[in-house]
Amino acid sequence: MEARGLVVASLLLCFLTGSCYGNRLFSSLKQTLDVTASPTQGQVLEAGEAKIKVTWGLNRTLPAGTDSAYKKIKVKLCYAPISQKDRAWRKTEEELSRDKTCQHVIVSRPYDASNTTAQSFEWTVEKDVPTATYFVRAYAFDAADHEVAYGQTTDTGKTKNLFQVLGISGRHASLDICSAVFSAFSVVSLFVFFYIEKRKAKVSQPKIEMTGQ
């Protein structure tokens, strides 16, 4: 019974930590993909409006068949180091299951190894993307849905080709208008209530008749 309990506890622990099949490290991936994106260094994009054009493909200097095991491609928007300062939830981890750098998926689709030309996708920056500095990274997955290769628009130190996204602050014109209307309605209602109360008080006030001496 004790042995069975230990097995169950081990399975539960590995399930919760995502380590049942071993930890996959970012450094174990092959950098075989070439990835480019339309934003220029330091460009500022507005969330919900701006578009990012991403192009990816196998590095042409590699021999044919290098990507034969690639079955799926995921292109993601990733936080640059400048956006991770004092923000623990944006941290980079060597273990892929714990890495919080790449939170926004731009595109996810099957990988076509027979296509020797670069593939492109245009993505409108989603409204929930927060203000930060970013770069773009693509992951290749094998048949077991494990990351096996990657490519990114920046260098290893994540210092080049970084761009910014200006997120929506949470204040919208519609909300401002509603707030102003509600405030005006409250003020008008207060004056109307005050006027009505004054009229009631005036009507209910007893009249004093003047009598001659």
Strand content: 25-35%
> What Rg is obtained from the alpha carbons, in whole angstroms?
31 Å
Number of domains: 1
Average of pLDDT: 83
Uncertain stretches: 6-19
Number of DSSP-assigned strands: 9
**Helix/strand order, N-terminal first:** HEEEEEEEEEH
The top level CATH class name: Mainly Beta
Report helical residue fraction. 10-25%
User: For the terminal residues, how far apart are their CA atoms?
Assistant: 113 Å
Give an overview of the whole structure:
The chain has 213 residues and is an alpha+beta fold. It has a single domain (16-166), classed as Immunoglobulin-like (Sandwich). It is built from two helices and nine strands. It is elongated.
Short structural description:
By secondary structure, the chain is α+β, with helices and mostly antiparallel strands. The protein has helices at 2-17, 173-204; strands spanning 33-37, 44-46, 51-58, 72-79, 102-110, 119-124, 132-141, 147-152, 163-166.
